[in-house]
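Checklist before submission:
- one chain only
- standard amino acids only
- sequence pasted in full

Submission:
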Amino acid sequence: MDFYNPLSELLNGPYAHGSIYPPLPALFYKILLRMIPFNIASHGAFAIRSSQAGEMVFLMYVLLTLFAFFVLVTEIKRNSKFGKYLLSFTLLFSGPFLFTFERGNIIFVALLFLMLFVFFKDSKKTFIREVALVSLAIAAAIKLYPVIFLVLLFKEKRFAESIRVIIYGLILFFFPFFLMGGLGQLPILLKNITTTSNEQLAWGVGYSVNIESIVRIIGALVGNSGGNPIFIGRIVSYIVLLTGLIAAYFMKSQWKAVALLTLLMILVPIISFEYALIFMIIPLILFLDKGTKQEKYDYLYLICFLLVFIPFTFGNVDSINYSFGAYARPLTYGVLLQNISMTVMTILLLLNIKRKN
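Returned file contents:
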């Protein structure tokens, strides 16, 4: 429904129904809406989903994005063709990817563009490097938080390229407003983001993968599911964000810097659900291709990666879910393991900055 809801909501204005999508993805959905007959779209998201036109549009979207994903992985991954296909096939049946497809969230498109940036920003071809810069801007214009990857350019003293990414990003963020009702929509978007951020607190910690939820889980275990864990979680998020940015800037290991930035991108936002874990494929590929030289915590990192992409839920954690009320989204053991593995990996990476990496 993350695919069909934005389509139906556009009929009354891009942000009239509480959408928190930036204008670029909203414009993308507006184009897709043209393929749906008005008499179907006017009846809402479920009517679009049940229609042949709605199913065909979604099928087109899925096939194109999957094709792009396979092309990127086979182009990026250092391995035999069989190994590349096996990795792609395995990841697509992991929990994060299955959750992404179940929701139909446009985060998958943001992943594709972020992959283009990370793996092609150092290309020897000027045109390809520029495409990589534009790709980062597009990823940030879709989901905002990929902008954190500017740190990779800052640490390499590529300031001119950083400025171009910022310019591209501002254009891609603000220009679509003029095709979506004008800049007057910006305050509504900001209000929707604030409202949704506050509302999600009532959803419990189910499907959530962020620091605030981790602290709330700990609070529930010790019998405190009120406001204190929420406040502490946000403070911890800010501390981890600041510490992580500094650590990533000084890290010499490419895969570790990318892994830490990816973890910050997932763990710090208040609204971050299981589908955000698909971004972990980027540091995973870098980790697998870093060479045969083994480091002290490599096997622990590997276990963390395996738990992040776990395909099983293992049932609900009832002892925690009861703390957030009957209508809260259920926390599963699978998501709990994913939160633990990301926490462990983040701590390892932050501690590892003291070493020569």
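Reviewer check: The chain has two domains: 1-201, 204-357.
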